[in-house]
Amino acid sequence: QVQVVESGGGLVQAGGSLRLSCTASGRTFSKNAIGWFRQAPGIEREFVAGISSSGYGRYYTDSVKGRFTISRDNAKNTGYLQMNSLKPEDTAVYYCATRTLGTWSDNRYDYDYWGQGTQVTVSS
Q: Going by fewer Cβ within 10 Å, which terminus of the chain is more open, N or C?
């Protein structure tokens, strides 16, 4: 059983930056793709970014392209989501998830293990 823990959320003003971290237990982390999702009140959980096990395959939803960067450090069992130029509409609970396969997916049902979420609030 893989345990996933997110951290790095907080309150920032519009235009600011945050870096979220996602640490997973186990020896299989380097084989697992990572996905970041977010959920705001009254809105369905949506895909934000995904990265393959190797780190070479990366994809972003259109609303964050050019502002967010997903990365990983397999030696540390850690994934990252660097968020720049934050907007109030980015306010949400952000979740990290991993899947047993190494290819990224934008489908939440393809992921096997989820973190508890970390709150990101962007003020105007």
A: N
- The helix or strand, by DSSP H or E, that contains position 22, with its residue range, turns out to be strand 18-24
Q: Which residue has the tokens 């990366």?
A: 58
Residues in the chain: 124
Contact predicate 45/109, CB 8 Å: no
- State both tokens at 124: 């105007």
CA dihedral sign of residues 5, 112, 38, 42:
negative
The answer to whether 79 and 48 have CB atoms below 8 angstroms apart is no
Q: For 58-117, what is each residue's pLDDT tens digit?
A: 999 999 999 999 999 999 999 999 999 999 999 999 999 999 999 999 999 999 999 999
Q: Which residues pair with 13 in a beta bridge?
A: 123
Rounded CA gap, 58 and 56, in Å?
6
